[in-house]
Amino acid sequence: MSDSRIVYFGAKSAAKSGVRSIYKKLFKALGPQGWWPVTEVHGRLPVYRPLFYGPHTCRAMFEICAGAILTQNTAWGNALTALTGLNGAGVMSPLKLSALPSAELCRLIRSSGFYRQKAERLKIFSRYIISRHPEGLEKWFLDATPDGLRAELLTIKGIGPETADSMVLYAGGKAKFVVDAYTHRVFGRLGFIPGTYAGLQEGFETALPRDHRVYNEYHALIVALGKNYCRKNKPVCAQCPLKSACSTGRIAKKG
DNA sequence: TACCAGGTCCTCG
DNA sequence: CGAGGACATGGT
After folding, report:
1. pTM higher than 0.85, yes or no?
2. pLDDT tens track for A154-188
3. What's the pLDDT tens digit per position in A126-155?
4. Nearest-nucleotide field for A181 (CA, C1')
5. Which residues touch strand B (CB under 7 A)?
6. What is the C-alpha to C-alpha distance for residues A18 and A186, in angstroms, rounded to an integer?
7. Which domain holds residue A67?
8. Within 7 Å: CB of A73 and strand C?
9. Taking a C-beta distance cutoff of 8 angstroms, is the pair A40, A131 a contact?
10. A59 with A161, same domain?
């Protein structure tokens, strides 16, 4: 007998339909998320634009990449303060960032935490663009395949799987599913295994149409769920859009 | 007061 | 490989 709460990724149609039905539930309950929030040309704060999936301007692409680095293991609000600081200082570009003294860069992004590491990572990424892709971020990303771009990004120090995938999906508008801490938590509680980065990513990419708009919404919806319902300590199971598909709340009640 | 937040790198069994 | 520590601020 199989435990209905356990859903194996791989060649299982149950996993496919599970992944798809969860997406539908989330989208229906929470709506389009408008990711990735990007600063408007004339605006100060990044804005969520529901149902817009690109293409982005070159500077928006760079801002998304910088944001992906700044939000590593950090609350988005803290990363956002740093992004606003960089925009306010007029240094949101590879050329400007790479020319900025490290102490100044550290000061601008201090709110994001791990700021020495992140300042270094932003510089490394900026220098990489200038030296390896002098034609610019836009041409680099738009000409690349999702897997090729991901592999190249992973060679850059400071860019790991999630940051690379965020850049590919949200800056490049290419179909790569982003797996993050929320994804592990939510789908772990839902009973999906394996819970490794590669396992989860392959599960999603196999189950879903290869459409960057779907990957975009799905990951953003998982984050929304993780923040507002599927919290680490005190999950709000009673009103969770996925409670019918999840056993966590029931188990907790049974004790 | 602790714990948590849209990870990654390095080191050591 | 996987586990464990370092990296750091701001919100609850």
Report:
1. yes
2. 999 999 999 999 999 999 999 999 999 999 999 99
3. 999 999 999 999 999 999 999 999 999 999
4. B6
5. A 35-37, 67-68, 71-76, 78, 113-114, 117, 156-164, 166, 170, 180-182, 223, 226-227, 231-233
6. 13
7. 55-171
8. yes
9. no
10. yes
